[in-house]
Amino acid sequence: MLILTLDPGSTSLKFALFHNETEQKRNVIRFNQDILGLTLPERAAHCEKLVAEFLRAQGVEIGDIDCVVARGGFLKNLKTGAYEINEKLIADLDGAIMPTPQTVGIRIAYHMMHPLGKPSFIYDAVTADEWDPKAKVTGVKGLEKTVAQHTLNSRRVAFELAQQLGRPLTDINLIVAHLGGGFDVSFFRRGRIIESLGYNDLGFSPERCGALQFDDLLKLAKTLPPDQLRALNHGKGGLVSHFGTSDMRQVEAMIQKGDQEVKLVFDAMLYRVAQLIGCGAVALQGQVDGIILTGGGAHSDYICNQIQANVEFIAKVYRFAGELELEALARGACRVLAGQEPAKPYV
Length: 347
Hints:
Blueprint: E1 2-8, E2 12-19, E3 22-30, H1 33-36, H2 40-57, E4 67-71, E5 82-84, H3 87-94, H4 102-113, E6 120-123, H5 151-165, E7 173-179, E8 183-189, E9 192-198, H6 214-223, H7 226-232, H8 239-243, H9 248-256, H10 260-283, E10 290-295, H11 301-311, E11 317-321, H12 325-337, E12 343-344
Parallel strand pairs: 1-4, 4-6, 5-12, 7-10, 10-11
Antiparallel strand pairs: 1-2, 2-3, 5-6, 7-8, 8-9
């Protein structure tokens, strides 16, 4: 089976061609100002031409592809796994108050495959919701917690660990900490993500201020315009606010040079991650078969050792470094095409 995987972001489109789960070739389209100035449907049309040109350069025509799978965006009422892409799904993404970059990949997938009568899917959308209902309740009536997590990468590594343990994912409980520009920790109960906690719940991350005391937030709201306040929670907070960089490698280099202030802030951030993992032990009632550290931050021995020292009493800690979204999409598509899981209709 030839599978094309698409992972759009705000400034680029990553894509790769797989033969089953084996990668054949990948590429990245980086968006210049001209592309960024296009609407999302226009951007999708532009990128589709570039993807087709790339495929032809590899000796592959669109008709040779058996399936295209794209990263899912911010859609409500979804479960984990695959959903067939249809016009309603695209319309719901386009009609969102803040349409997300994932619309680009979804449009390309549908436009390529639908005329050929071949399948196109989204897989493991960010807002896939299998949470325990009580995890969504807040202290303000009518205000429910937004469901969102690094579903795609977290489920990928959960499947991999289950395979290593020789047990089905539906038979084990896991805690998965995704360590990137934003942090989140997902709690897997027998294959289902029953809750995820992140920087908005406790602590902060490399580029996000995360949880702040309410009175402090009110003070900031009086002194900063809304765009600057919002930026603190997405791009200008966390390590960026303290040290002007979100690159954890640079921060570690400062620590190695003996900067104790940097060490204090960095260790505090990692301490909060460990506390979030501890929350998972409560959610899973102490029945934890493994703790996974993943994402770009899991490449660092310093980061992993700091976290592991605080949580290894709960369960064994495993490392799956990196964010392999394209590979996760291909594996998901293979499970669907092999009949191991269904592609649900989007309604």
